[in-house]
Amino acid sequence: MTLRTLDSLGPLDGRTVVVRCDLNVPLRDGAITDDGRIRASVPTLTRLLDSGARVRVLSHLGRPDGHPDEQYSLGPVARRLGELLGRPVAFSGAPAGETDLGDADVTVLENLRFDPRETTKDGDGRRAYAAELARFADAFVSDGFGVVHREQASVVELAQMLPSAAGTLIADELTVLQRCTDTVERPYTVILGGSKVSDKLGVIDHLLPRVDSLLIGGGMLFTFLAAQGHAVGRSLLEQDQIDTVRGYLERAQQHGVQLVLPTDIVVAAEFAADAPHETVAADGIESSSFGPSAIGLDIGPQTAAAFAERVRDSTTVFWNGPMGVFEFPAFAAGTRAVAQALTEVGGLSVVGGGDSAAAVRALGFRDDQFGHISTGGGASLEFLEGKTLPGLSVLGWAA
């Protein structure tokens, strides 16, 4: 089976199309701080509007726990979407399943997760909610790649109730991710960071036989160092994953994979933007002036340079997870070095969504400096794990 795309829906002139986007953008005091996901939704919406369709946009925002909460309203998103589309966008503040739609070309419905049935594990509840969402539509387009790994009413059940297809965002994401799984151009390097090894177990397990180099940074690196017998002070450590990590180190050697760990670390006295800090060898964290109280907050400059060189020498690179606490300027250098190196890759460079996408934008990089910035961190990782994603299967995609 192949993915059903927009062409499969036939002529759309005069028809009402419900589009599931992922407009889950960060807000601060009601203002959008990163509109990347809204911008990513524009090509599909524009194509539908140009075809004469009347478009109803569905999305979630944050975790409102199944009830209306003004701080998670999609009102600011609707306003920004109108600016990006260059046309009026209506917003319905009523619950999505109860909206009385007018004649506007584009309407953003209120946060799906204001209704607990969107995310319930009860299939009957999800189907009932999906039926309410489907009643005012002729077709459904799924374009929220960031939620295709979730079994939710607007992702799975709604696609089953209406003629359905994937939007251009999902189609483009799959084309890129296939180049990181099925049609890889080598050398192939994967960089993994972020807080916890446990969040990346599946992708490490699946990729180890498939990559040439696996670079480890972020908070998860300290569990790898501990697995090698090094003391890590008060750095983030998942004690229960040490044996698993030892197994990965052995498997990497068996497969001839270069599993590269930091050789130096930036450590601090405490977790704070202005904390005193210094650079030490990766095997000497507790030998720093902070002793056993040292906290590792970034990869060191020697490691950053080595990671960057390996990235630049690769033809395909996938990166998920910051190298350090990039939100604090003193501990952003490792993440910045990796991001800069990705902009210099001669082949395909992929920023794997989530915190990585937030980091490159926060550090001043433009989206077009990279081969691709994914809109779905968790979905991207699960795809790389080889998992069946329910929101893709319902659109005809077979892993």
Roughly how many Å apart are the termini?
9 Å
- Say how many strands there are: 17
> What is the helix/strand order?
EEEHEHEEHEHEHEHEHHEEEEHEHEHEHH
Strand content: 15-25%
* Helix content estimate: 25-40%
Radius of gyration: 22 Å
Overall pLDDT, averaged?
94
Number of helices: 13
Which secondary structure elements does this structure contain, and how are they paired or packed?
Blueprint: E1 16-20, E2 27-28, E3 31-32, H1 36-50, E4 54-58, H2 75-85, E5 90-92, E6 106-109, H3 123-134, E7 139-142, H4 153-161, E8 164-166, H5 168-178, E9 188-192, H6 201-207, E10 213-216, H7 221-227, H8 242-255, E11 258-260, E12 264-268, E13 277-281, E14 295-299, H9 301-312, E15 316-320, H10 333-342, E16 348-351, H11 354-362, E17 372-373, H12 377-384, H13 390-393
Parallel strand pairs: 1-4, 1-7, 4-6, 5-6, 7-8, 9-10, 9-15, 10-11, 15-16, 16-17
Antiparallel strand pairs: 2-3, 12-13, 12-14
